Amino acid sequence: MKYKILILFLSTVMISGCEQNSDLQTYVAQVKARPAQPIDPLPTITPYEPMAFIAQESRNPFIDPQPEQGQLFSKTKVKCIQPDITRPKEELEQYSLDNLMMKGTLSDDRGLWGLVLAPGGIVYRITADQYIGLNHGKITKVTKNDIEVVEMIPDGSGCWNNRTTTLTLNTSTTNANKKQG
């Protein structure tokens, strides 16, 4: 008996749903009866104008660019300073000057030596005319309180500019010992 009541209830709900569907059909018929909106015009297309590629005026896009110290710049700028890239690198040229600290000096019959602490706790003994840092830095002077280094910085046009940097004596553990001039 329960099933008969359930079937009777469901059929009543379905029939009442069909009657509400007529309102939906009326609305759809009204929308379809409206006039269609005009279509937007197509955008105007500008004609394509090809540009000729002249290889003599531009770099070939299919080869890697040449480095700044290439032969092109050395021919155009005669008085341009350049680092000696054929010179063998010294031990302290693998570290940035920001990572090196002057920790003291030593003196012997050959002159004054600077003591520089490198990353990893290694202490190096240096003197004038040695190279230090990543920018082709050459030590020009060692005093009791500082080490003067002249670095070569590229200027972007194939030449290099000199920049003087000083490592000052540092007895603390901080790395605030750089002055640039």
Can you give me a brief rundown of this structure?
The protein is 21% helix and 27% strand. The chain has 181 residues and is of the alpha+beta class.
Alpha-carbon Rg, integer: 40 Å
3D shape: elongated
What name does CATH use for the topology of one domain? SH3 type barrels
Task: Provide the β-strand percentage band.
Answer: 25-35%
Count of beta strands? 8
> What CATH architecture label of one domain applies?
Roll
Give helix and strand order, one letter per element, not per position.
Answer: HHEEEEEEEE
Distance between the first and last residues' Cα:
103 Å
What does this structure look like?
- The chain is an alpha+beta fold.
- It has a domain at 97-168: SH3 type barrels.
- Helices cover 21% and strands 27% of the residues.
- It has 2 helices and 8 strands; from the N terminus they run ααββββββββ.
- The strands form 2 sheets. The chain has a 5-stranded antiparallel β-sheet, with no helix packed on it.
- A hairpin with a 5-residue loop joins strand 6 (146-154) and strand 7 (160-168).
- It is elongated and about 120 Å long.
- 11% of the residues are buried.
- The model is unreliable at 70-77 (pLDDT under 50).
Defining traits:
181 residues; alpha+beta; SH3 type barrels; five-stranded antiparallel beta sheet; 2 helices; 27% strand; elongated
Helices and strands, with pairings:
Layout: H1 2-33, H2 71-76, E1 101-108, E2 111-117, E3 123-126, E4 131-132, E5 137-142, E6 146-154, E7 160-168, E8 178-180
Antiparallel strand pairs: 1-2, 2-3, 4-5, 5-6, 6-7, 7-8
InterPro entries: PilP
Protein name: Pilus assembly protein PilP
Organism: Tolumonas auensis (strain DSM 9187 / NBRC 110442 / TA 4)
